[in-house]
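Researcher: I'm preparing a figure for a lab meeting and need a structural model of a single chain. I don't have an experimental structure, so a prediction will have to do for now. The sequence is pasted below. Please return the structure as tokens so I can convert it later.
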Amino acid sequence: MDYSNRPNHPVNKSFPLSIIVLILLIRALTLNYPDLIEPTESRYATIPLIMLQKSDWLIPRVWIDGQLEPYFSKPPLHFWLIAICYKLIYVDEWVARLPSFFAMIALLIIVYALGKRAGNSISGILSALICSTSLILFFLSGAVVTDVSLTAAITLALLGFVFFETSETERSRTYWGLLIFTGAAISFMIKGPLGSVLIAGTIFLYLLIQKDLGMLKKLPWLRGTLLYLVIIVPWLLMAQSAYPDFFHYYFIQENLGRFLNPSFGSRYGGAHNHSYGAIWYMLPVAFIPWVFLLLGREYRVRFSNLLKKERDSVLLFFTIAGVLPAVFFTFSRNILGTYCVLSIPGLALATGYLVSAVQADSADKALRRRYYVITAMAAVSALTLGMSLLHQQITFASIITLLVLLASFLLNTKHKSLLNYSTVFVSYLSLHSAILFSALIVLLSPYVNNRRSLEPLMKEIANNTPGPVLSVGVADHFEQSAFWLAGAGQHEISKKIKLHVFNPNKLSEIKVKNVVIKLKRFKSSDYLKAHYTVRKIIGKWAWLVRSNELSKNNSGLSKEKYTGPAKQAP
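Model: Understood. Here is the structure written out token by token.
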């Protein structure tokens, strides 16, 4: 990479670093909101719980048709991390989300190191700030998903490449080259071959455009390939030995089928069918608020210069890293908005590098005006949301919101003379974005809980049935939260839970008194409507009680005959 275009100006590092710490603290305080969301979060939180219960860490498992079945959709590394957290702490939704949160911390460190190596210190700091408060990454860092861990592993490999390319000694090149293969192998153990494809594609495309493909010959291919295989092959062979159809299902159906088949549906769920290229309208939303910054003329001009012969190689590499994942998913209709997180580190690095460069080349006046306008807008929004939360008696979140907002202005008054305005601007836009996103998470949690989580209904049943043990029937993977709550025990529910798992295709076998089931499944079952009565409906789920048990129930809740659409809980 050519460092001749490096922006070079002094910066006080303690202030933006303290902002990053504040952002991480704010996110950590909101990890418990909302309840685990069905189906993804509850499924991914239950899999490591089953690993602990069965002492089987080889293959992830889920309940399907009343039996524990292997879950071949994902490799086990992220589930291992959750299981370790469960074992070291306890089973709780906050704990289940810790691996994603720790992955974000690791990602920010990697982004800072990458930005510093390819640009300078301020470029690295600004990139980390931008990355930490990009909308999709901020939300997913507090979710039980594999995407943040995968993103960190891919970015680690790209860090290895940048250090490899810029190292002067053969020995250091070998070490950094091996880091590329290590990151690729870790990404495979998190989500399969996708990470390796994106890593290889980013490096190859960059070297192709730079007409420097000879650099590939210098990679430690033999040792790197051996290291890659040593990390991934043992698990693959053990999985294939235990389940002879593993290779075919995992590589052909789960990976190629998911990418190529628009109507793909695995044994674990249906397709997420979108139009081709849908990733491109998801990506700008995922990069809020920083996408608006890139609309400035000074940034658009620098991006357009990438098409010229004399281009900025650093900006080119970061741009490829940010855009290639979206290009890859352009040709697949079976995608989720969460896939956009793979582009965030590259986009954050490109944006941080550009902000740093523009600051070095231009006067401060325009940047100052932009800073004050956005700061004022963010302050008004944060105060409004804080008062809304206070009105709903969510005092903890309100106090945190207002205190952090006050602290930000006090710090601004103290430190603004020590910093250039690009750092001030990005620092405060990051902080205010974190406040706004956190306030929204807490504010919307009751709504999300009642519509996307089974936990409120399970708590309702536990609080309104006699005895120290709640005995309830559930239908396998349609109600994964029930299995997780049973394992979490009294950390989440006021009493122990005893589950009776039944096959959703054999509803006539249900004999237990209390049943939790999707309302649409109850609606389509003549057997359930004949033998059970709806006692409570929250979101998509219904609490059913056997009709001959109603007269014995003294919980104080009146029965509700099903007469139509779901009645939402207040």
